[in-house]
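Q: Predict the bound structure with (2Z)-2-iminopentanedioic acid.
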Amino acid sequence: MLTNEYAKRVYALAEARSGEQKEFLQALYEVLLSLEPVLETNPVYEKYSVLERMIEPDRQIIFKVVWMDDAGKIQVNRGYRVQFNGAIGPYKGGLRFHPSVNLSIMKFLGFEQILKNSLTGLPMGGAKGGSNFDPKGKSDMEIMRFCQSFMMELAKHIGPDTDVPAGDIGVGGREIGYMFGMYRRLRNKFTGVLTGKGVEFGGSFTRTEATGYGLCYFAEEMLKCMKNDSFRGKTVVVSGAGNVALHAAEKAAQLGAKVVAMCDSNGYVYDPRGIDVAVMKQVKEVERARISVYADRVPGAEYHADRKGIWSVKCDIALPCATQNELDADDARKLVANGVTAVAEGANMPSTLEAIEVFQKAGVLFAPAKAANAGGVAVSGLEMSQNSMRTNYTFEEVDEKLQSIMTNIFHNSYDAAEKYGMKGNLVAGANIAGFLKVADAIVGQGIML
Ligand code: NDP
Ligand code: 2IT
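A: Predicted complex:
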């Protein structure tokens, strides 16, 4: 429960203004709870109304996206770009195409992105965007027409020094390519306006792998420093089967773990011999098929048409990499009962507040999303600098920088938690370390009257 008066007042303000935005309020509540000791000892943030200024997006753009499906029918979707905070750099954050997308989800993701981007140590502000467009079952041409129409409008609001979108759920290399092509035609400029581009046209090596790999680098450092342990010999469960999940599974296996389960939104696959990531990539990335196809193809693997069931699979380490609130208190209790020792979040806010409490009370090491999944946007930041310098680093160079960024994020979060009397609480540490830089930048740039 919030006890600091300033934090309480700011939360009440957000509730009064955006009471229906449940996901945004959830993300905000967790951050305010962590910041209480900082607010107590640093009255300057209240004096300059830093929190009030941080919880209101700089700009929220909502637009119509009209496109034609293969049957010649005109379809209409809603597009969003929330430019949340630009105090420390150009707005930066992904685009999500999923039918559940609404302003609350955009705002929670944009708000988290402010602190996450700050944690990377790179100069990037926080933003998020997307559409309620459902890519499932759409042909390649339908995806292309949608992306082009979406960019027709989005192009008015972005730019390499203004706002640089990237991928998220439902938006990967294919979609970024189509959007980049449209932007280039509209502006007649070849700039780093999007990240996650193909490596042939300005994309960075390792961006595709960065979030999943970075998650494992963070978790490995956490295991080493807090438990004198590692991935080696561990049984791992990874939820999701998209960009983040596939590369988390790949890196966990490279670090010596056995990944025994993965899922999509319909069900999960259990493979007691260890998921064959190459087969899973073929099914999910190349064929864009459902995860059940993996079980049809790999002898010994089982498919269960119950996505939630994945949290009943016994494991040492759980990596939730699908979506927000996919892991609740009941799921957390099942994981704890089965002996889980570490949880690291690849998705954004996959654990509910109650689930996090279960893990923390049980002494499970817990790596929060905005620290643990920051590897994706960190390599996006490296893609921006490569584009500005008109150069490119090798895979190995980027991978090495990614490892060092993730290690730094772990230590900065760990140290911040310790400094403010919450040793070992990486949720608090990440929120505090991310907040301080942005808050000081807001104060330093004066009051915009
Ligand atoms: P993808 O679209 O590549 O994959 C998403 C995966 O999650 C799919 O397996 C999908 O299953 C599943 N999923 C999506 N929505 C739901 C839902 N409502 N219920 C259950 N499962 C669902 O996305 P990413 O891998 O890029 O993103 C996954 C998570 O990681 C998101 O939270 C995203 O915000 C976060 N993230 C992504 C980064 C990136 O670089 N891409 C960076 C940092 C965080 P199905 O196919 O059935 O829909
Ligand atoms: O949630 C995230 O950090 C992302 N989807 C990646 C954002 C980015 O700009 O690379």
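A: The chain has a mean pLDDT of 98.
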